[in-house]
Write a structure and sequence with these properties.
- Keywords: DNA-binding.
- It comes from Micromonospora vulcania.
- This is TetR/AcrR family transcriptional regulator.
- By secondary structure, this protein is mainly α.
- The protein folds into 2 domains: 51 residues, Arc Repressor Mutant, subunit A (Orthogonal Bundle); 137 residues, Tetracycline Repressor, domain 2 (Orthogonal Bundle), CATH 1.10.357.
- It is built from 12 helices and no strands.
- Helix 5 runs parallel beside helix 10, helix 5 packs antiparallel against helix 12 and helix 9 crosses helix 10.
- The protein starts with a helix and ends in a 21-residue tail after the last helix.
Length: 205
Amino acid sequence: MQVRESTGGTRERIKAVALELFTEQGYEKTSLREIAERLNVTKAALYYHFKSKDDIVASFIEDRLERMDALVTWADSQPATLATRRELISRYADTMFGGGWPSVMRFFEQNQTVLKSLTSGQQMRGRMMRLANALCRGDDSPAAQLRAALSLFAVHSSWFAVQTPDITDEERRRIALEVADELLAAVGREPDETPAGAASGSTKG
């Protein structure tokens, strides 16, 4: 058991240091040798855990896929209510804003080409659709499907769409969830239940 814990700890440290270097000097300009040097280990020791930079990135993606799968599993066990939708989108935000994930998400946003070239990266879209389906469970209308997808995008895009200087990650999360909640509040509602002022799209001229 001790060996496993040590191996797991080393693997996580490699990922943390690699992410630091990717952020500092760019993914393409970072080599495995530089990662090994910063870790003060041999390149052979690094190879034991990761054969390439792509393997390191794939491990970040796989971690995220596992978190998304857990969210869908949880949502499937809950009633299809607004309270469940709000809790699900909040938990989704937690997977992106907590535990060192802000740095990972910034890396994802800045390296879309790398993600698309990896098999695990190509699986991300399917997981997003599963999450969107969980968010609009009980309402299969086209509008509900779109609102559910856009609520996820509100959280996800907060990393690049909100460009206010010096905004904290917590403020960014709060704003993203406010926008997502506005969208989810209309899922499962009958057409004549639309709040006053939110319907039609007509403008006064």
